[in-house]
Structure formats: structure tokens, C-alpha cells
Amino acid sequence: MDKLILIKYGELTTKKKNRKTFIKTLKNNILKLGGNNITEICDMYDRMYIKTSNPILLVEQLKTIFGIHSIVICHKTETDIASIKQLIMNILKEKEFKTFKVETKRSYKQFPQTSMEVSRHLGGFILKNFISKVDVHNPELIVFVEIHKDYTYVYTDEIKGLGGYPVGIQGKGLLMLSGGIDSPVSGYLALKRGVDLECLYFESPPHTSIEAKNKVLKLADTINKYSGNIKVHIVPFTRLQEEIYKNVDPSYIITIMRRMMYRIATIVAKKNNCKVIINGESIGQVASQTLTSMIAINSVTNYPIIRPVACLDKLEIIDIAKKIGTYETSILPFEDCCTIFLPDHPIINPNLKRCEEMEQTFDYEKLIEECVSNIETIKKLEPDKFSELL
Length: 390
Ligand code: ATP
Ligand code: MG
Prior knowledge:
Blueprint: E1 3-9, H1 19-34, E2 38-43, E3 47-52, H2 55-62, E4 68-77, H3 81-93, E5 99-106, H4 115-129, E6 133-134, E7 141-147, E8 152-155, E9 158-163, E10 172-176, H5 182-192, E11 196-203, H6 210-224, E12 231-236, H7 238-247, H8 253-271, E13 274-278, H9 291-298, E14 305-306, H10 314-324, H11 327-330, H12 337-340, H13 352-359, H14 364-373, E15 376-378, H15 383-387
Parallel strand pairs: 5-6, 5-7, 10-11, 10-13, 11-12, 13-14
Antiparallel strand pairs: 1-3, 1-4, 2-3, 4-8, 4-9, 7-8, 12-15
Helix pairs in contact: 3-4, 5-10, 7-8, 8-9, 8-14
The structure holds adenosine-5'-triphosphate (ATP) and magnesium ion (MG).
């Protein structure tokens, strides 16, 4: 028999004006990520009801969807006190608790007792049948009762959802995705605020390996669990990177390389309707991420850049990476294009004028064009293909 799952919205409730779009996007996302398990879905002002024949699997899927505050598996009975008591008896038999409270909501206003009266009545019933006490402030167990005209729902446990906004509500951003720890976490945090993602990865074969690329695809696939739409654009960066290496003062190699990455990211973002660029830079983490470096690098574009982990410590970033399942992949030891040409002493206070002078010494614009026109786009991630090559 189908089970009923109740979903309470996340931050949506505070967004009065946009509520309709929020609920519609959330509903679409639920159908997209869990559609196979859904028999019926009904959205309301402050909650959504879903019927499913596989509640365990659906709950797991719902736990990956942003915009959900909590998930509840409901028990259903008829709208009369005797049936409600019987159902409560059955549910509580399975539970251990010392303190509890009953919370009643009554959309069927003709029900002979008010919500308060029902709560009190059922509370008395529980006290009589279970060794326990009422605690209205900090109970171990809350018994929720929802009285509708033709049926009543009872539930006890709320499973915590991910919160945030439904993915896509803010449009798309372009995530600069490397094989490191920081950028997948940044992508996840952007998804949490409702920004869907396309990813951009710079590869430099033969200096970087196929494993390095597969690692990035695996990371994209892991965060795709929260989106379902993620594409990856792979930029062949070798020629441009070699020219930088040949023409630029060693201490400026990383600064100039990152300026090139930003230029390319801007073109790709515009082309693909991504409203922002997102990356994993964190203030002070390495030479190219001092505030002075960020100014020199950022000055090649006026596109908005979001750095979700800018103010987090590495350990805080690692905690999130572990929680979302990217950490184990990120620490696989394959070299990225940022590490292969790393000079001994990268500059921490680059001078903007010096950057511009060095860039005049070679025809980077043509090389950028070449990079952009040879981008390989992976529209549908196929985990089986790249996972076995890692
Ligand atoms: P780590 O976790 O080791 O710091 P990282 O990916 O953050 O890895 P950084 O050198 O700190 O490496 O790079 C800063 C940011 O620049 C990355 O978070 C990512 O957004 C972007 N970036 C770096 N290398 C690449 C790359 N090869 N392709 C795409 N984006 C990259
Ligand atoms: Mg980093």
C-alpha cells in the first residue's frame, strides 16, 4: 500500500512573494530526482504531500533536495477520536520516550473539539498507557496530529531536510571545478542557495592525466546528486599554459594563468547563460588567493564572481567535503594544471601593470579563442565510464 510523505518547506516560507515559483521549482526537482517512486504529489501553501510505494528510497532521495526543511512519514486513519487513539497506540508501542507532547492541527473546523482540546485529550490518553511525562518545552517525542475532514494524519519523527532554496530558482552559475577539495564544496554551497551549475574544467594533457580528468568528472557526478542537470565543459588549456610558462616571469605564472582562466570562464558563462562564475578560492589559502592577488586576477572581468568558501578555514571546508561525499575523491593524488607549473616563489602581491605588460608579450587572445572553440562538453555524466578509470 502507498505511504504518505509530508514535506515541510525550507526557507521558502520567508519568501512570500516568490512562493509560487519556489514551490513549483521544488516540485519539479522532487519529480526529477525521485519521480520513479512517486504515485501522487500535491503541493500546498506550506507543505507538500507525496504518495509513494517505496518510502525508504524516496526519503533518501528527498534528503538530497534543497528547499526541504523536514520530511515526515505519515500514518493515516479516520477522523474520529477512537481511531486516532488506536493509531497512536500502535505507533508509540514501537518507541522509547520519557517525555512527550502532542501538537494538533485542525483544518476540519467542524471537528467537535478544538486543537488544544484534542492535544490535551490525547496527552491524557498517552499518560495513561505509557510511563511518561508531558514536557511542552523540550520533549523527547512530539506526536503530531493533523485532523482533516475525511482522514487524520499522525506522525512523530521529522527527518531533517537539507534546507536552502530549490536548485534552479536563481538560474545557473558556472563553477570552476578542479580536482581539489574546495571547488566541489563551493558548488554544493551554491546549489544550496538555488543556483544550478555548469562546470568548467581546465586540463593540460599530457601534463595532466586522464585520471585527473576522470576525478573531476567523478566530483561533478557527486554534486550532481543535488542537481540532476550538471554539465561539464572541458577546456584544452595546454597551449595557452605552455605559452604563459615561456613568456612570463616565473613568479607571475600562476597570476597570469588565473587571469586567463577568468577570461575563458567569462566567455563560457556568457555563452551558456550562467549568471555568475563560482570558484573555490579561499582568502589567503595560497599566493594567488591573497586579497591583492584576487584584485589582480579579478580585474580581467566584470562578471560577478562568487566564492562560497572565501571565508571558511580549510578544516571547515574539509568537514563539508566529507559530509557531501567529495572528500575521498578530492584527495586522490592526480596533478592538476595549477600544480604542474607551480613556481618556487609565486608572487603574493602582484602588480596589475606588470601583469598587463607581461601579457603584451604573446598573443594570448588567439590562444583563448582556440581554447574556447575546442571545448568538449559532457552533457550527461556517465559515472560507470569514468569511475572505473580512476
Ligand atoms: P585545493 O582544494 O587543493 O585548494 P583547489 O581546487 O581549490 O584545490 P586552488 O589552487 O586553490 O585549488 O584553486 C582555486 C580555485 O580555482 C579552485 O577552487 C577552482 O575553483 C579554480 N581552479 C583551479 N584549478 C582549476 C582547473 N584546473 N579547472 C577549473 N578550475 C580550477
Ligand atoms: Mg583551494
